[in-house]
Specification:
Distance between the termini: 112 Å
Shape: globular
CATH superfamily of the domain at 498-656: Histidine kinase-like ATPase, C-terminal domain
CATH topology of the domain at 498-656: Heat Shock Protein 90
Structural class: alpha/beta
Radius of gyration: 35 Å
CATH class of the domain at 498-656: Alpha Beta
Largest sheet: 5 strands, mixed
CATH architecture of the domain at 498-656: 2-Layer Sandwich
Strand order of the largest sheet: 2-4-5-7-6
Number of helices: 35
Helix content: 55-70%
Length: about 950
C-alpha cells in the first residue's frame, strides 16, 4: 500500500511540474534500493538500483544518474562484487564533478572508500574519506555521509594505519569524537550511537584503560538499538560488550555476550555475521587456552563462511590459520596440516585478489584520464578554430598596416637588441666561467684545512680548544656548501644544466627528503609539520632538481626560525602541477624585504646574517624547470610557494623512459626467485618503499619496521645484504648490526647503515658497530646501489677463492672470527662424517644446529655452494689429497670418502679437476 501511494505521488509530481515519468520512477526505485539495503536485503536492493539507473540514463538529469550509480555501487559492494562496484562508484564521481554537486560527490567518495577499505588498501581508502572531511569543512556540509567518513578514518587508525609516527589509537579517538559530536548536532541517532561505540573502543585500547567510560557509551548505544529493534547494530553492540569484558578480565560476562551475539545472528539469518560471531567466540577460548572449544568454534565459523556468497576472505583465512595452530597445540598434526594447507591456499587467493585490484584501479584511472585529456584537447581545438576563423580576416588587415608603418623602426631596434643580447651573453659566459674556476680553486685549500683539522680533533685537547676546532669545522663545511652552490649556479648560467626526467613515486621521494629534517628539528627544538599528498600514479620529474629546491627552502627555514617556533611543509598535485609550500613562524621580515630575498647574499642590515645564495639557486632552478615561485608574509609567517610542471616538452629536458620486458608470469617468478635477497629495515614505511623500488628489479626485497623484527627476518631468510636505518624504536641500527655480526647464522652478511645524522661521531659509531658501510640521508640512489653491488661482489670473490682451495683454510678467506668458528666447526664435522655415504643434508643441518634452509643460505652466501655441493666438494678435495699421497687405489679412496658408486665418483672428480682420478694420480706421481 505504501509503495502504491509513493507511485501515485510521483505521478502527480510529474503532472504538476512537467517532469518526465522516467525521473519519477527512477527516484522511486532509488528510495526502494536504499530501504532494502538498510534491511540487509541485498538482492532486492541491487534489483531496484539497477532499475533506477536504467531509468535515469534515459533522462538528462545528471544528479539522478550520479545517485543511481552510487546506489548500484553500494548494492554490488554489499553483494561482494567489488570490481563492478568500483566502476559504478567512479562513474558517480565523474558525474558529480561534472555538475559540481558536492553532496552526491561525497556519497560517491564514501562507497569507493569502502571498496578500498574492504580490499585492505588503507592509503587509498583514507584519501577518499578525508576528501569528504575536507569538503565538509570548506563547504559547511554536515550530514550522515560526513559522520560515516569520519568513523571509517577512525577505524583505519584503530586497526593500525600509520601516519607521521603519531599514535594511531589517539588519532582514532580524535576522529570518533568528531563523528560523535557531528552526529549529535545533525540529530542522526543511529550514527550518534555507532560513533559512540567506536569511541568507547578507543578508550579500551588506550594505554590508560577507561573501561567505565566505555561501558557508559556502550549502554547508551545498546539501549537505543534495542528500543528501535535494530538487529544489525544490536549484534555489533553484543560483540562490543564481549570485547570490553574480555579485556577487563571479566570472562564470565564476556562469555555471556559472546553467546548472545551468536544467538541474535542465528535468529536474524545473517550468515556472515553468525560466522564472525563464532570466530570471535573461538578467539576468546584461545585466550583462555581452551583449545578444544576454540577449535570447535573455528570449524563452525569456517563452515558458515563457505555458505556465504559475499565471503569475508580475510577472516576466513585467519580462521583456517588459527584452527591449524589449535590442532597443533592439541597434538592433532593431521588436522593441523590440513588447515595449514587451507590457510596457504586462501592467503594466496587474498594476495592475488589484492594485486588484481591494484592493477584494475590503475588501468581504470589511466583510461579515464586518457579519455578526459582527449576530450579537453578536442574542445580546446574546436574553440580555437572557431575564434580564429572569426578574427582572422580583420587581424591580417590590421597587421599589414602595422608592419608597414613600424617595420623600419623595428628593424633597427631589433638589430641593436641582438647586439646587446650577444654582449650580455658573452658577459654571462665570462661570469659563469669565473664562478666555476674560482669554485674549483676553493676546493683544494678547503681540503688542506679540513684534513689537519680532523687530526687535531682526534688528539687529547681541552674543552676550549675543542670548541674552537668545532667552529673551524662548521665554517669550512659552510664554505664547501657555498662552493657547491656557486658551481650549480654557474652551470645554470652557462646553459649546460639539463632536466633529467624519470618516472617515479613523488610521494615517497618527498618523504625521503623530509626525514633528515625531522631529526634536525628535534635537535634545534623546532616543530616540523608536514602534509604530503598521496599520489595515485607515477610522474616524470627531475629528482636532483626537486631535492635541491626542497632542501634549500627547508634549510633556509631552519636557519631563520627561532626556537620553539614552527615550520610547515606541504605538497599537492593538481592538473599535472606540483605545488610545494614551505612556511615558518617567527620571521622578522617585512613585505618590502620579499623582492630582495632571491638576491645573492642579501642582508637586511649589518646586525643580521645574510641570506647567502641558497634562495637565489632555488629561483634559478625553478625557472630552469619552467615553474614559478612566490613569497608572502603575514603575522610573522614567511611562506614560499613553488609550482613545477610535471609534464614537460622542453629543449632543456631529457626524458628517460624505462622499458619493461614482456615475460610470462612463470618465467618472471623463476627469475625473481633466483635473485639475491636484500633486507630493508626502517621504521618509516615511505623510506622502505623508496628502497624497495630502487632494488626491486635486481633483488628479492624483504622489509622490517625495526631492528628486532629485522633480526628475526635475517635469521630466518639469511639475506645477501642488509640496509638498515640507525634511529629506530625497540632496537636501533647500531645494536641490530652488533647482533647480526655476533650471530653465527648471520655474521657474514654485509650491513649498510643509513642515518639522518651527518656528524663524524655518528659515522664512527656505525663503523664501531662493525657495519660494512655507512651512508647519510638523503642518499644518492646510484651510490647506494653501487655500494650494495660492491659488497656482494667482495663476498663472491671470497667464494671464488674458497672454491680454488684444496683444503678449507678459514683464516685465509675470512676475517670475521664468528665465521672462522663456523668454518672450523664445519670442517670438523666433515672430517668426522666424510666416510659416511648416508650423511644427508638434513643430518648435516641438524648437527650444525640450524634449519636446512638456514644452512643452505649461509653456505651459499659464504662460500657459494649448496649443502649437497659442499659435501661433494669436500669429499672430492679429501680424495684428491689421498691421491696425491698415493694412499691406496682409486676404489679404496672413493669408498673412504663416502662414494658408493665408483663411476659416479670418477664423473664428479673429472668435473671438478678436469681429469680422471687415475690421470690425476699419475700427474701427481710424476711431480
Amino acid at each position: 500500500m505504501k509503495n502504491n501511494l509513493l507511485l501515485i505521488f510521483c505521478l502527480i509530481d510529474c503532472v504538476c511540474y512537467s517532469q518526465p515519468l522516467e525521473i519519477a520512477l527512477s527516484k522511486e526505485a532509488l528510495v526502494k534500493s536504499k530501504n532494502f539495503l538498510a534491511q540487509l536485503e541485498k538482492d532486492s536492493a541491487y534489483f531496484y538500483a539497477l532499475k533506477s539507473l536504467e531509468l535515469a540514463n534515459n533522462t538528462t538529469d545528471k544528479k539522478l544518474q550520479s545517485q543511481s550509480n552510487t546506489a548500484m555501487a553500494n548494492a554490488l559492494y554489499r553483494l561482494g562484487k567489488k570490481d563492478e562496484a568500483y566502476v559504478y562508484g567512479q562513474k558517480a564521481i565523474e558525474l558529480s564533478n561534472t555538475i559540481k554537486d558536492a553532496e552526491s560527490l561525497m556519497d560517491a567518495y564514501l562507497i569507493v572508500g569502502h571498496i578500498h577499505y574492504f580490499n585492505l588498501e588503507d592509503s587509498k581508502s583514507i584519501s577518499y574519506y578525508q576528501k569528504i572531511d575536507s569538503m565538509s569543512s570548506h563547504l559547511s556540509i554536515q550530514n550522515a555521509t560526513v559522520v560515516k567518513a569520519l568513523e571509517m578514518v577512525g577505524l583505519l587508525f584503530l586497526r593500525g594505519y600509520e601516519y607521521n609516527g603519531e599514535d594511531p589509537i589517539l588519532l582514532a579517538e580524535k576522529y570518533f569524537q568528531k563523528a560523535h559530536e557531528l552526529a549529535k548536532k545533525i540529530g542522526d541517532k543511529i550514527e550518534e550511537h555507532v560513533s559512540g561505540s567506536y569511541l568507547a573502543a578507543t578508550l579500551i585500547r588506550k594505554k590508560v584503560k577507561e573501561y567505565d567510560k566505555a561501558l557508559l557509551l556502550y549502554d547508551e548505544a545498546y539501549n537505543y538499538f534495542k528500543a528501535t529493534n535494530n538487529k544489525k547494530e544490536l549484534a555489533s553492540m553484543l560483540w562490543a560488550y564481549s570485547s570490553l569484558y574480555r579485556d577487563w578480565g571479566k570472562f564470565e560476562l564476556a562469555e555471556k555476550y559472546y553467546l548472545e551475539n551468536i544467538q541474535l545472528n542465528s535468529i536474524s539469518g545473517d550468515i556472515n555475521g553468525l560466522a564472525r560471531a563464532h570466530f570471535n567466540y573461538a578467539t576468546f577460548h584461545d585466550i583462555l587456552n581452551n583449545f578444544n572449544k576454540a577449535a570447535t568454534e573455528y570449524e563452525k565459523a569456517i563452515q558458515l563462511f563457505k555458505q556465504e556468497k559475499n565471503l569475508d576472505l580475510v577472516m576466513f583465512t585467519a580462521a583456517n590459520y588459527n584452527l591449524s595452530e589449535d590442532y597443533f597445540k592439541l597434538n592433532n598434526f593431521e588436522k593441523a596440516h590440513y588447515y595449514l594447507k587451507e590457510f596457504k591456499l586462501q592467503n594466496d587467493t587474498l594476495t592475488e585478489r589484492q594485486n588484481l585490484s591494484d592493477f584494475t584501479d590503475a588501468e581504470a584511472k589511466y583510461q579515464a584520464e586518457k579519455k578526459q585529456k582527449e576530450i579537453e584537447l578536442l574542445t580546446t581545438e574546436n574553440k580555437l578554430a572557431a575564434a580564429n576563423q572569426a578574427k582572422q580576416r580583420n587581424l591580417f588587415v590590421g597587421l599589414f598596416f602595422i608592419f608597414l608603418s613600424g617595420g623600419g623602426a623595428l628593424f633597427y631596434a631589433y638589430r641593436n637588441k641582438i647586439k646587446t643580447a650577444e654582449k650580455l651573453k658573452e658577459i654571462n659566459q665570462l661570469k659563469s666561467r669565473f664562478f666555476a674556476n674560482i669554485s674549483h680553486e676553493f676546493r683544494t685549500p678547503l681540503t688542506l684545512i679540513t684534513s689537519p683539522l680532523q687530526s687535531l680533533q682526534s688528539t687529547q685537547i681541552d674543552e676550549d680548544q675543542k670548541q674552537q676546532l668545532h667552529l673551524i669545522e662548521v665554517n669550512s663545511n659552510r664554505m664547501l656548501e657555498l662552493v657547491n652552490q656557486l658551481l650549480e649556479l654557474s652551470k645554470i648560467d652557462s646553459g649546460s644544466l639539463k632536466l633529467i626526467l624519470k618516472q617515479g613515486d613523488l610521494h615517497s621521494f618527498l618523504h625521503s627528503i623530509l626525514e633528515p629534517f625531522t631529526f634536525h628539528a628535534h635537535e634545534k627544538n623546532l616543530r616540523l609539520k608536514s602534509a604530503i599528498e598521496q599520489c595515485e600514479q607515477a610522474y616524470y620529474f627531475d629528482k636532483d632538481i626537486i631535492e635541491k629546491i626542497v632542501t634549500n627552502l627547508l634549510t633556509n627555514a631552519f636557519k631563520y626560525t627561532p626556537e620553539n617556533e614552527e615550520i610547515n611543509f606541504s605538497s599537492s598535485i593538481t592538473e599535472n602541477q606540483l605545488h610545494l609550500v614551505v612556511a615558518n613562524t617567527g620571521s622578522e621580515l617585512t613585505e618590502k624585504d620579499l623582492p630582495k630575498l632571491f638576491e645573492r647574499f642579501y642582508q637586511k642590515n649589518e646586525n643580521q646574517q645574510g641570506i647567502g645564495i641558497g634562495l637565489a639557486l632555488v629561483k634559478e632552478l625553478v625557472e630552469l624547470y619552467q615553474g614559478k615561485i612566490e613569497t608572502s608574509i603575514a603575522a610573522g609567517v614567511l611562506r614560499f610557494s613553488v609550482t613545477l610542471p610535471l609534464q614537460m616538452d622542453s629543449s632543456n629536458a631529457v626524458l628517460v623512459k624505462t622499458e619493461i620486458e614482456d615475460r610470462t608470469s612463470t618465467e618472471a617468478n623463476e627469475s625473481k626467485n633466483s635473485l639475491p635477497i636484500l633486507l630493508v629495515i626502517d621504521d618509516n614505511p615511505e623510506i622502505r618503499k623508496v628502497l624497495s623500488s630502487i632494488f626491486s628489479s635486481t633483488f628479492q626485497v624483504l622489509e622490517a619496521a625495526d631492528g628486532e623484527k629485522g633480526l628475526l627476518v635475517a635469521q630466518k631468510e639469511i639475506p645477501d645484504c642488509i640496509i638498515s636505518d640507525v634511529m629506530m624504536p625497540i632496537m636501533d641500527g647500531l645494536l641490530f648490526t652488533k647482533s647480526i655480526k655476533e650471530n653465527e647464522l648471520t655474521s657474514f652478511i654485509p650491513v649498510i647503515l643509513l642515518t639522518a645524522k651527518t656528524s663524524d661521531e655518528a659515522h664512527l659509531d656505525a663503523l664501531k658497530s662493525t657495519a660494512d658501510s655507512f651512508l647519510t640521508k638523503p642518499f644518492n640512489h646510484a651510490i647506494l646501489k653501487e655500494t650494495v653491488n660492491q659488497l656482494i661482489q667482495e663476498r663472491k670473490k671470497l667464494q671464488q677463492r674458497y672454491s680454488k682451495e684444496l683444503i678449507l683454510k678459514p683464516l685465509d678467506i675470512v676475517i670475521n672470527s664468528i665465521d672462522e668458528r663456523f668454518l672450523d666447526k664445519l670442517q670438523q664435522l666433515i672430517n668426522e662424517q666424510i666416510s659416511n655415504p648416508e650423511f644427508s643434508a638434513e643430518e648435516f643441518a641438524d648437527k650444525m644446529g640450524m634449519g636446512k634452509m638456514q644452512l643452505y643460505r649461509k653456505l651459499k652466501s659464504l662460500i657459494g655452494l649448496s649443502i649437497t655441493e659442499y659435501l661433494r666438494s669436500e669429499r672430492l678435495k679429501a680424495a684428491a689429497a689421498l691421491l696425491k699421497k698415493g694412499n691406496g687405489n682409486i676404489s679404496e679412496i672413493a669408498y673412504s670418502v663416502g662414494f658408493n658408486d665408483l663411476s659416479y665418483f670418477s664423473k664428479c672428480f673429472k668435473e671438478m679437476y678436469h681429469c680422471s682420478p687415475s690421470e690425476f694420480s699419475k700427474r701427481e706421481a710424476e711431480k
